[in-house]
Input
Amino acid sequence: MMTIRVSTPRHAGRVLFVGLVLTYLSFILLLPLGVIFLEASKRPWSELWQVITAPVALKTYQLSFTAALLAATINSVFGVILAWILVRYDFPGKRFADGLIDLPFAMPAVVAGIALVSLYGPDGAVGRYLNPGTVLGDGLQQLGIDSVNLTSSVIGVVFAKVFVTLPFVVRAVQPVLLEIEPEVEEAAQLLGASDRQVFWRVILPQLRPAILTGFSLAFARAVGEYGVVVLISGNIPYETMISSVYIYRRLEEYDYAGATAVAIVLLVVSLVVLVCTNLLQWWSRRYAA
Output
């Protein structure tokens, strides 16, 4: 006997909603990604390979990925600490401190770059005290460090990336900490566990997926950062030039296909990191279960 399914208004509305969401995602994500690969395909693969593997390009990859990895690692450590303090402790100005975490999201990149240069540049409020002739500058010279320039240096690049990726781990870890019941920690302590054992064996396994999420988001954000780094790094080829600045230089030379090829390298690496992070999260949840 043949069964005829009659579509209900609710089912039709659901199909329409799903179709709208998929269309929106296609225009926002899939179409731009497709155009990137289409633009790169306009030139022979051999020419694109020369652009991707040029010595200056390889140096920008090395700096971009290393600085992004350092920034994501630093924020993973201090992000957990900040989230712990904001969740577990009460102190005056707590809400204000919690709001400051999102400042890198709200502040325009150019404004942040100018602020960092004004603060840590050679003539900045902090950087001037590191120049030779000052107490700190003379002390550094005795240690064999002739001059310290927090801008136009690798340290400046890492610092800029740390600034822009600060909120990711904090905001990923905070909700998990709020969901952890204090009774679980108290039970572990009653069973004889020390504070260190409670953290490493009870709390950290529950935080691990959130930390991995925050780390991957911070790494991907740091790899593509441009606005803050372009002002603080000095953009010196083979020294402080990052990949996003190199891409912009290629665009200024009207080499759109070459710029797109370098952008694809950054895109692929970021996607690989996200996929690996998701796999680690899956393994972590399965292991914890």
About this structure: The longest helix spans residues 55-88. Residues 44-288 form a domain with the MetI-like fold fold (CATH 1.10.3720.10). The radius of gyration is 24 Å. The chain has one domain: 44-288.
